[in-house]
Amino acid sequence: MCMLMNKLCSILLFIFFSFALAAKDQPESFSKVLSYSKEDLKTKTAVYTLEGGGESLLARLWFIEHAQNSIDIQYYSFAKDITGIIATDKIIVAAERGVKVRLLIDDAAARMYSYDIRMLDMHDNIEIRVYNAGVMLGRPDRRAKFFLKNYKRLLRRMHNKTFTVDKEASIMGGRNIADRYFDYDKNYNFRDRDVLLMGKAVNQINESFEKFWNDPLTVTYTELSGRKKKNEKNHRYYVNLHERSLNTKKFSVVMRNKINTYNDTLKKAERTGLLVWTTETTFISDNPGKNEDKKDWVGGICADSMLSLIKNAKFSIDIQSPYFIITKEKIGIIKDAIKRGIKIRLLTNSLSSTDNFMAFSAYQRDREEILKTGVIIYEFKPNAKVRYKLMVPEVQSKLHYRTVYGFHSKTIVIDNSVSIIGSYNLDPRSANYNTECISVFRSKQVSENLMKIIEEEFLPENAWPVSEDRNPDHKAKFIKKMKAFFCRIVPKKYL
Description:
The protein is of the alpha+beta class. It folds into 2 domains: 40-271, Endonuclease Chain A (Endonuclease, Chain A, 2-Layer Sandwich); 280-494, Endonuclease, Chain A, CATH 3.30.870.10. It has 20 helices and 19 strands. The chain has helices at 2-23, 30-33, 38-43, 53-65, 82-96, 114-121, 140-150, 202-213, 221-225, 235-245, 253-260, 262-271, 301-311, 328-339, 357-373, 387-390, 393-396, 428-433, 444-457, 478-486, and strands at 45-50, 70-75, 100-106, 126-131, 162-165, 169-173, 188-191, 194-199, 218-220, 276-278, 281-285, 316-320, 343-349, 376-380, 404-407, 411-414, 418-422, 437-442, 463-466. It has a 9-stranded mixed sheet with strand order 9-4-3-2-5-6-8-1-10, with helices on both faces. An 8-stranded mixed sheet has the order 11-18-17-16-12-13-14-19, sandwiched between helices. A two-stranded parallel ribbon has the order 7-15. The N and C termini lie far apart (58 Å). The model is unreliable at 1-23 (pLDDT under 50).
């Protein structure tokens, strides 16, 4: 009797949920809402950088709500925390109205439980695949099978981050799906950067996604779980997720209202020159199975493309990278650029702000050598004042704006006219091990918009200047100093 009542309750909840969805009109396509013609999207690319985590989340949610046909998601990490629950609920709502959703995640960095993945994968409009399986996801025996098959590739992960709607709009950059990327974490958040692209360049993102989706290194989640996919909806799971998403303590009414008016934000950005239409935007991605055909598995499409642009610099290179680990080749390129009179500035994490002590320990070992080349170094403050501009007020005001911030933005501006934004960290892991993606903008206006923000982050209230005889390591807590010290045993080539 109890089981029957539970089942009846589940059915009634789902009927209510379905009626609530049906009551909403089918949303207009984003191009109609924003008054862009299909011709605009074919011939040009709209570029708009997403600086604050709150806006970056709103942008994703707004585009999900206006999806007509498809949502293609490719992430290194997708967590089931506050922002993950909100995004997942929106995705299910889109799938309920017929939108086809494809989610591709890396196996090693998965932060969603297998149960949750299976519940999503059961929906007939949602399909989940896993890149380089054998570490985290799936039934133990299936996981072991893929581990034995791929153990030589254990360190080679898919670090790409793209979120594409209707194959015409995409958000790419440094953010994964987790609270700390969107200013929702109570203790530690990232200062990060994404870029919204609409139009022509998104075709290159679509091509890259299809390569990864259909590559032999990518497997369906059903292969890992050992369960045959059922074309039915798990009513109770979807209703419970929807109820959790509606919890105003987690996602306030104010933030929900901002989703409804986000099209006005984009229109204003276009009027003020922050959203730029260009014909010179290129998306570049490493291929799945990166470097397997190369001796020592060294290099990659993204690394080669970035080095080519850096070598052609004429007077300035401004770099933002959370991790900066040099090699002999990099030092040679830096020295050559400095000899040609090029001013190079670097903003990276301090010991006080970093989340990656192994990477910092490698940078720490080489910091003096980097400074001797003539590179001007700044290290990000954990209490940088710029964070007040980035924080989500509805969340951080309750925490009295005390949250520590680390640096996670990956941006390079060359000669104030060529800009690079993506998932690529300036370290051996991004160069040789992980697959990465970047967007290159040959636009003075895009570069000028970025430099206004970058210049602010070099200011004393946001970053410490570093010299050969002075660095801010002493400002870090003792435990952080010890972590960085002991991480020195790890060879730099693996970082």
